[in-house]
Input
Amino acid sequence: MKNQRRYPTIQNAEETIIRHCQDKKLELYGDAADEWVAGRLKQELKAICENGNAVAFLAAKNLTDRARAAGHLSGINGTLGSSLTAFLLGITGINPLCPHYRCDKCKHVELVPDAASGFDLPTKLCPKCGEMMTGDGHDIPFDSFGGQNGEKIPEISLIFTSEITAKGRELLQEIFPEDIIVRAGHLHKTKSNAEKFGLHPGGWFVIPVQYKDDVKIITFHEYLVTAQDYRELTDRYLKLNILSFDNLDNLYKLSSETGVQLEKIPMNDPNALASHRFSDLWIKEIPKSQAVCRAIIDVQLMWFKLNHPEEYTRACAKSTAPNSCPLDV
Ligand SMILES: [Zn+2]
Output
């Protein structure tokens, strides 16, 4: 599989992702949790590097870092959240390790393997230093993203605010200055069963310049676009999805206007969880201080809303009245 790939290169991509992961592992878990964290990380990095996917992870990290440096929010779509590598690189906030508490001050760690999710764990003070511990980990195997041996084609789907998404091509060109950045073309069936050519909502290919004549590229709606359906090219060329969602824009605005830093809101925050149970209300009906929590719930529900009307989604939240981790919704 690796030999068929015509991926672009970033100098020292493998060494760079390994170094970043090791540094972040040390920052979060110290050097005590060696087998537990390091075993999984070693296995993932081996699969990623042997299958030639280091450049995909590094490109995703670079995009996320650029968005964050500009003060914007980012997230992921799809199975990337099953990768510890993606978590340690800062691409996603979803930690796939088994549920656990960790102390950010003294690095003390307690595993809670029977919990459904680390976000559900009740607050707890560190028995060693007295600091508030962080509950994390959702017990997700890497296979979901990479296949049993990391052989799956990486599906890198990132979500950003619309301001960042609009700069998708520009950002990719900064990361891959020598290569050709091309929007993914999409063939889909219309209601009358005819095939129609359009644009993938946020898919971009990075075509190494030496292969530019092997991919037919057309100009379509002011973009350079693959002339064929993108699915025929994903086995061979690197594709990154740079998507935007309205709710991320809402969160960004709310955070800017209220001064509430989203990452400072604990995942088991009682106000955020309570707002699940009143999700048929609208933001304007609740105090400004809780509006950020409400918007977070909206984002958590948005995946579900992709396939269902908003009214239906809100009715589900109301009838189930969840009282634990949003990931369980
Ligand atoms: Zn501690």
Remarks:
- The chain has eleven helices and ten strands.
- Residues 103, 105-106, 108, 126, 128-129, 131 surround zinc ion (CB under 6 Å).
- The longest strand covers residues 195-207.
- Confidence is low (pLDDT under 50) at residues 280-284, 325-329.
